[in-house]
From TrEMBL, chains A, B, C, D:
Similarity remark: Belongs to the aldolase class II family. MtnB subfamily.
Source organism of the structure: Rhodotorula paludigena
Domain Class II aldolase/adducin N-terminal, chain residue ranges per copy: 29-225
Cofactor annotation: Zn(2+)
Enzyme Commission number(s): 4.2.1.109
GO cellular component: cytoplasm
Protein name: Methylthioribulose-1-phosphate dehydratase
Keywords: Amino-acid biosynthesis, Cytoplasm, Lyase, Metal-binding, Methionine biosynthesis, Zinc
Domain of life: Eukaryota
Catalysed reaction equations from the record: 5-(methylsulfanyl)-D-ribulose 1-phosphate = 5-methylsulfanyl-2,3-dioxopentyl phosphate + H2O
Pathway(s) of this molecule: Amino-acid biosynthesis; L-methionine biosynthesis via salvage pathway; L-methionine from S-methyl-5-thio-alpha-D-ribose 1-phosphate: step 2/6
Length: 239, 239, 239, 239
């Protein structure tokens, strides 16, 4: 499970994967752009949170512990999907790949996701405190239609109840991998997992649809928290 | 009621309606610009919500299920007002016109509106939960003066009570058409309709005045929700 | 009290007061820039609110009923301070000077202000609902030091209690003039006046200091509302 | 303790420290950029709050009582770390160095900090009202991991309880120096100090890490206030 770029200075480091490219939809450009947007939404302040994008057999990762709203394409890591070999890593300054890397791979391996988003949204943290059990549930909200079954399948219906498992936080982010995997296995229909007192993991078939679902999820967590604080039930139609 | 662009590749598709134009007040430019602003306001996150603008006998529509803050002029559909014939549709990528199209036409047909806005504002959703009946009512707020009678007539007065009908949501957005039509018929003076657990529909004589009224409406929903949660009445002057 | 630009087409209209000028601190540039900032703060949505700046014997005014975040220098009116004669008015489209004009003149005539700001801030509206009497009072807040005695004098101290009179709203904005004048006379030390269910009027020696005080005022209204809703007193040190 | 730039017009004023420099990571550029970001976050509205950066033996300071979001490199003061001598000060307009200067030096002298941030965050003010004693405490939040022991040491753990001392406000900002010093001495592990009814002081090894910690602190104050208002304890795991 230990991931680290090769230390042998002669090991090939394929900078062309990032730098000889000016396609604005390329992961190396999308990750910085999306992180700037997530910062504005309050999802990745204080260097927290992040996003990973898969393009075919390559996985693109942001660095760990940096200002997410300031990431540049040259800061991005590229790994292979299967062997998790490093194909490209930053050398212009000392950077480590995101501590969430094993968690992002869960979405790639278990769901075949094309992108995975991790936020420290306060709505998520409040939801995990107001729903002390192992699930956040909400129904009868138009925005549920923006979520996909399992994050990857067909769109959910207004008549579906959205069920998001909640796992307990661990001191080390890497140690969340097992709990996350278990929750994803137990809830194959869930498009996201909440980590108590921490935030969200969600994914989608590609970066655009992962972002769209992350926005819908955050909206539903926010409205759920508001409803709960106003004394309303979030499942069913009766108030 | 089924609307779809012609599938015959020889059918004329008048791209000039969009592309040979650099007037910043043209609907093809206004729709993207307004959607970016609405995204910042939290009205159209997660691909939800939207806007349609009418210019004379042409109706301009945003595509369905896309990131609203990223729409480009070339993504816009153009239909005729009367026959709902497609005059122009995007071919650079597969796009479907907004699922709200029949709802937007309600505002054009029943009110002669020049633009119609649909939001997923959380203030609207909370208002429809805190006002469980069929109307949201508020009076004695300066911002009521920013609303027009029926959305199209003269400005409302500080002494008017704003009454916005609330209709129930349906699993399919198209199925809201009938309920929306009934509410607009029953409340000819109302400048908007709320959809429970979903959002707002509002309109105006043109895009600028539709936007101004949508902002006033959202302000009034927000302040109404705050007042209700603080235990105040929103109609009348006594607290 | 009726103010309107001359209708005689031969009456001189001194466009040079606005257009032959590229000083970014000139009122014709400051008003649009400040209005864009106020829009972001939620103070002037839905065409509400505004700002007027005085430069020596000239008073600069934004137009009425327009999107405040879209104002351009050429939309600005210029009047004389004493006679309220129109020196410059827009002719490129039909625009009317702000309905707040007589209220802005109160600040110029009674306080010798250099700028006057009117907002529809929701914090102000909530404060006037939670303080049903004729005064909003708050003490022991660092931000009080950002307010000036009477809006124009020396800075207030952390030990001062900020007292802002509240007047009742009227159906027509012009009719607020008398109540505003009375409140400003009765509270010579107050740097602002609140209008119930409407918003704020505040002023300062120049645009920069008027803006700074408007920000401090809004901060204090917001924190006052939060304290009141949490069951705290806003005057004195005991909770 | 009285600090003021030399009044002798022949005293050397080393403008080159600011002006012959286009490195975007230089303090003279970072201070304006960071202040713009802090303004958007609501930390420095109404000319309040600020930031100081140390680069080796030079201390860079923003001016006092100006719009923080408008600061330009040429407005910056430069002092020596040890003697607090002025090496560079603005002459293009009358400006005074930040009233927080002695407080910023506390972080340099007592912690060896590389940057110090002062905010008027409303979350901080609310926290000091809801925690009427001399400490704000929170545990079991992922964002605690973004704070460093004493602001300068190793990262805190998810299992650590964050303890931030709260000192009482004083009418003059300079008079906070002693209380701040005492709190920093008594709480060597604390990465920040709160000032009741006023705001935050926090610091870090450099500007980037001071900003990251200030964001984590503000997040934790915000979530702490939300938890307290919802009737939850912020320390321990039971709700």
């Amino acid at each position: 499970m230990v991931l680290a770029p090769p230390t042998d200075p002669n090991h090939p480091n394929d900078h062309a994967l990032i730098e000889h490219n000016d396609d604005p939809t390329h992961p190396a450009f999308l990750i910085p752009e999306l992180c700037r947007g997530f910062y504005t939404l309050g999802w990745v302040t204080g260097t927290g949170g992040g996003i990973s994008i898969r393009k075919d057999e390559h996985v693109y990762l942001a660095p760990s512990g940096v200002q997410k709203e300031k990431i540049q394409p040259q800061d991005i890591f590229v790994l292979t999907l299967k062997e998790r070999d490093f194909l490209r890593w930053p050398v212009h300054k000392p950077l480590k790949q995101s501590a969430c890397t094993p968690l992002f791979y869960n979405a790639y391996d278990m769901r075949g996701a094309g992108a995975c988003i991790h936020t420290h949204s306060q709505h998520a943290v409040m939801a995990t405190l107001l729903w002390p059990g192992s699930e956040f549930r909400i129904s009868h909200q138009e925005m549920i239609k923006g979520m996909r079954h399992g994050g990857m399948g067909s769109a959910m219906s207004y008549l579906d109840t959205l069920v998001i498992p909640i796992i307990e936080n661990t001191p080390d982010e890497e140690d969340l991998r097992e709990g996350l995997e278990e929750a994803m296995r137990k809830y194959p229909d869930a498009p996201a997992v909440l980590v108590r007192r921490h935030g969200t993991y969600s994914w989608g078939p590609d970066a655009e649809r992962a972002k769209g679902q992350a926005e819908c999820l955050d909206y539903l967590l926010e409205i759920g928290v508001k409803m709960k604080l106003a004394g309303m039930e979030t499942v069913g139609l009766q108030q």
